[in-house]
Amino acid sequence: MSEDNKVVAELRENFGKGFARRLRAAGKIPAVIYGHGTEPQHVALPGHQVALLIRRANALLDLDIAGKAQLVLVKDVQKDPVRQIIEHIDLIVVKKGEKVQVDVPVVLVGEPFPGTVAMLDATSVSLEVEATHIPQNVEVDVEGAEDGTQITAADLTLPKGATLVTEPETLVVGVSVPLDTIAADEEIAEADAEVAEEQSEEAETAESDAEGDDK
After folding, report:
1. pLDDT 10s digits, 115-164
2. Greatest CA span in the chain, whole angstroms?
3. How far apart are CA 44 and CA 194, in angstroms?
4. Whose C-alpha in 136, 179, 183, 203 is 20 to 30 A from the C-alpha of 36?
5. Alpha-carbon span 76 to 71, nearest angstrom
6. What average pLDDT is seen over the chain?
7. Would you say 33 and 3 are in contact if contact means Cβ atoms under 8 Å apart?
8. Dihedral, CA atoms, 159, 164, 165, 168, nearest 10 degrees?
9. What dihedral do alpha carbons 90, 91, 92, 94 form, nearest 10°?
10. What is the DSSP letter of 97?
C-alpha cells in the first residue's frame, strides 16, 4: 500500500443534506463505509486529496479512523451532474489477500491495419482480483489487426492473479473499415465507372465519325 493512499477520515454523527452541504463547503466529502457484517460507518474525507486519488478506477484507500487503520475500496462516487462536484462516496471494507470483483477499464494499444479503426465494444471487463492488487487497466493489443477482427473477453491477456468474471464470449474490440471510407470508395468507383463510360462513348463516336469520312 502506497503512502499516497493513506487518508485521515473523520467520524461523523450528523447526517442529512444540510450537514452534507456544510461538509462540502468546508472542503470535505461525506462517505459511508460498508462491509464484512459491520454497521455502516459515516465519515468525512479530505476533499482535494480524495478527489485526486479516485481519478483512478477502483481506488484503494488506507483510512485512519480515530487512530484505527481501515482498508477500503471506492465502490461508488456520486457527482453533481452539472458542476461535477463530488457529493458522496460509498466505500467497502476489504482485507489484505481478500478477493474482490471489480470493473477494470480496457485500453487499446497499437494501431490496426491502415484504413481500419478499432472500436471498443466493452469499455471495461469484470475481474476477480486480490483487493490489494487491482490492475489499473487491461491492455488489448490491436497492432496490425485487419478488417473483421473481433476480440472477445476470452481473448484478453489478464493481469497475474486475475480471473475473468465477464462472459467469455463478450465482444470487447471490433476492427472495421469506417463507413465514410467505404462510402468514399464507392463514390470514387462510381466516378471512375462514369469516366470510363464517357471515354468509351467518345471512342465509339470518334470511330463512327472516322468510318463516315472514309465513305
Report:
1. 999 999 999 999 999 998 999 999 999 999 999 999 999 999 999 999 99
2. 113
3. 72
4. 136
5. 16
6. 87
7. no
8. 140
9. 170
10. T
- What cell numbers appear for 42 in the block? 459515516
Handedness of CA 119, 123, 129, 131 (dihedral sign): positive
Place of cell 470483483: 101
In one-letter notation, the amino acid at residue 51 is A
C-alpha cell at 77: 462516487
E strand spans, the chain? 6-11, 28-34, 41-46, 60-65, 68-79, 86-93, 99-109, 117-120, 124-130, 138-141, 150-152, 163-164, 171-176
Q: How far apart are CA 73 and CA 89, in angstroms?
A: 10
- Grid coordinates given for 36: 464484512
- Closest by CA position to 148, among listed 111, 110, 106, 118: 118
